[in-house]
Design brief:
Number of helices: 8
Distance between the termini: 34 Å
Largest sheet: 5 strands, mixed
Oligomer: single chain
Order of helices and strands: HEHEEHEEEHEEHEEEHHH
CATH superfamily: NAD(P)-binding Rossmann-like Domain
Number of domains: 1
Structural class: alpha/beta
Helix content: 25-40%
Length: 273
Amino acid sequence: MELQPGVAIRNNIIGTKRIADIANDFGITKFVMVSTDKAVNPTSVMGCTKQIAERYCLSLGKYSKTKFVAVRFGNVLGSNGSVVPIFKNQIERGGPITITDERMTRFFMTIPEASQLVLQAGSMGEGGEIFVLDMGKQVKIVDLAKKMIELAGLPESAIEIQFMGARPGEKLYEELYFEEEEMIPTDHQKIFAANHRVLDYNDVLQCVATLESASSEGEGSIRRLLKNYIPEYDCSGTACDAEKSTDETLLKIHADLRPELSGSVELASTADD
């Protein structure tokens, strides 16, 4: 996704929008959108597009009979793309185990925990919530690799660990919620709901339409639009440059989402909730 931001927009944003719209049109009782911890203060195209998908679903829910909620996953152990099967294969081949950065940490959850989070969110959700599982402390990837070497019955020195350097858009650590999102306890002792601000649906809809139109354009144009919508997105070192979009809708959403970052921009009031 990082190398093809247009594909990420069409998959994560437009694909989610179409399914959410169908749920709304047919009066589905509840809709659980699966997001990711990478949507919080994103440094990647995946994180940006997942955050926008969150905003679309939850803003649509303000005007829908369908109760829209979201969940933010950590890294799911054993799922497609998980480091566990990759490390297992590397150990079986005699190494080396490849890790991008020695400092890299991640939140982990099991497949049953991920499944239960979705089911519990569908049960508890009243519309507008973002549910997060208490996954404990983040795990250092290098410690996970060493543990897997040990579980394979080998001394740590038997398998070389190589550090390859962080990939484009990769964060050293993940976050489950924004600083301004208060974590509210739920009836489930390990599940919390993020108290967040829902944006105006029409503004988000216009932003989604702008991104869909731009999804076939160059990488730099797409990243600039994402940067304007999500000011904390760090796209330095990519085709994104310092040029700022003058799209008023994006500026408005920026100010609604991050009032403390909006400077002196004055905006018209949004529609009533």
